[in-house]
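cron nightly-structures :: item 1 of 1
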Amino acid sequence: MTVAPASARLLFCGDTHGSLDHLIELARAHPAHQLIHVGDLAPLSAPLEQLLPDDVAQRFWFIPGNHDFDEDADIDRLLGSALAARNLHGQVHEIAGLRIAGLGGHFLGRVWYPRGERPAVSRNRAQALQRLSARERWRGGLSRRLRAAIYPDELEALRQQQADVLVCHEAPGSHRFGFRVLDELALAMGCQLVVHGHQHEDYQSHLPGSRVRAIGVGLRGVTDFNGRVLRPGE
């Protein structure tokens, strides 16, 4: 497993909801740092690559949040952008010398809501698609809402890999509204740190019963690898 440096050159940004000026300013103030967005960039007024200057775009990574699937234009401007290859969802990439795993989207009751003993309705996107009528489909595939969901098979695929950091939109068990299944994922992958958005709260903690650090990034907030808040959430 990679031993994380004392201060990895990573900035985590959260839930910008259409506001990127502060990100550009902070990215330029830290030119050696990579930026990882933990979801909910939408609404975007143009394709993502048109909203980020080249010196920032080349250091920018993201996972989609639930609101990135709200409208057709939101999906097209993010997942159809020239920066779509920077989407970390379901993947592990080496960034700033660390292996970073990504899990975008959110838990949705009609797919999988892992609290209590509730079983998954659909284990993967193919099963979810089979349950949709032609009328419910979006562009011949899953509805936008189902594209935002997290599926059990996606977690299982990540569990087979190793990573130093897990970035997710949903919160793990360190947050009062978090999900312990994300703790289990991080521990199985050997992660040292979990960073999330969605709840719009700045905080630092540990996954329950473990030494794995957890960081929550606030609304339009920016936090570094060590948990130092560079821009508090709004």
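cron nightly-structures :: done
The chain has a mean pLDDT of 95.
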